[in-house]
Specification:
By secondary structure, this protein is of the alpha/beta class. The protein folds into two domains: 9-184, Rossmann fold (3-Layer(aba) Sandwich), CATH 3.40.50; 195-385, N-(1-d-carboxylethyl)-l-norvaline Dehydrogenase, domain 2 (Orthogonal Bundle). It contains 17 helices and eight strands. It has helices at 17-29, 40-59, 65-74, 98-111, 127-131, 165-177, 193-196, 198-209, 215-225, 232-239, 241-254, 265-272, 300-323, 329-339, 346-353, 355-369, 378-385; strands at 9-13, 33-36, 75-78, 87-92, 117-120, 140-145, 154-159, 181-184. It has an eight-stranded mixed beta sheet with strand order 3-2-1-4-5-6-7-8, sandwiched between helices. The longest helix has 24 residues, at 300-323. The mean pLDDT is 96. The structure holds nicotinamide-adenine-dinucleotide (NAD). The site of nicotinamide-adenine-dinucleotide has 24 residues, from α1 and α4.
Amino acid sequence: MTKLDRSNITGIIGAGTMGRGIAQIAATYGHSVILQDISSDVIQDAKTSLGKILNRLEEKGRLERESAIEILDRIQFVNDLRLFQQCGLVIEAIIENLEIKKELFGEIEKVTSEDCILATNTSSLSITSIAAACQKPERVLGIHFFNPAPLMSLVEIIPGVLTEEFTVKTAQSLINDWGKTTVRAKDTPGFIVNRVARPFYGEALRILEENIADAATIDWAMKEIGGFRMGPFELMDLIGNDVNLKVTETIFEEFFYDPRFKPSFTQKRMVEAGLLGKKSGRGYYDYRENTGNPNPKEDTELGEQIFLRILMMLINEAADAVFLNIASKEDVDLAMTKGVNYPKGLLQWADEIGLEKVLTELEQLQDEYGEDRYRPNPLLKRMVRNKEKFYD
Ligand SMILES: NC(=O)c1ccc[n+]([C@@H]2O[C@H](COP(=O)([O-])OP(=O)(O)OC[C@H]3O[C@@H](n4cnc5c(N)ncnc54)[C@H](O)[C@@H]3O)[C@@H](O)[C@H]2O)c1
């Protein structure tokens, strides 16, 4: 195979939140899609919900009626993997469990043709480890979509240690053709977005724990002063504190307990108390009917202090991703603006603030707390010493 295009059948395994979204994207582009799940109920639900989504797009005038019908017609909803033989690309989006994914990849390899590209949508598992379940790990890679997949433009492309360059280029080129913005990331915990974004939550939680400000005030500072679309606590409530904590815990463990990623007791207790966020009715905010929430303390000086501290930690993490060759500076900035809607690329932001100021702020935090968590990245130190910027 030289290139993947509309004529190739796309197989998707797992018809849950992500699988059905990816199926919608592939079918909209023009592929015939085979969407498989072990649960017949999920398959039925995926079919109904995709029908509704396409109807809504049609009502809003974003799709012609005929196109909506064609898109749904292109998707086959199935229970078994036998039809995957003709696929050019298979994307796996099942439960986040390494052993189950590995077992599945062994199976997929048996039912697909030799040159079919096999991808996993895992958020946190090692691509290399999943690929190791295959006879031909060179054709396996990570293609990481964000939720909701049809709306979020970013896709992280992650080669495993043994993935061939041809596999990466072919897959990346197709996902670009699907209209997505792709960035390439090294196979390391959290890839780009989930790793670099950690301090947005972690440092906000520290500020809360130190009683410098309450959740509403921290959210206000990040939105009003920082220009972020959502504050960290609103976002944790939306993601679910259980899900957010799990991601942090996984990254912390996978980084061999680097204190930079240390999870927060406050968040752990919130989860233990069942305060999961919007989905449970209460989190940092109360979402039940007829309940109010505290107003932020709109103190600009305090707000700037909060915003700067969180931003410095985000920049430090972005610099580390470049320093350790996880991704290019351009891809790190693109990932954070397109993947989590940050108002600016973090490294561009660092340039605008001045790297010297960024370094001084981090040094002051490290000096005050004496914690390794605040250690400034060597790349920042080196760049300040050489009077360099990330972009000219
Ligand atoms: N939800 C997100 O925000 C998000 C974002 C990016 C990536 N991801 C990743 O995408 C993957 C799927 O996540 P999700 O949120 O769609 O999960 P989900 O629970 O909504 O769906 C998973 C589906 O996989 C099915 N399944 C389980 N084992 C299977 C098997 N052996 N064969 C076929 N189907 C099987 C389940 O029946 C279920 O319908 C995970 O790896 C997750 O880490 C999730």
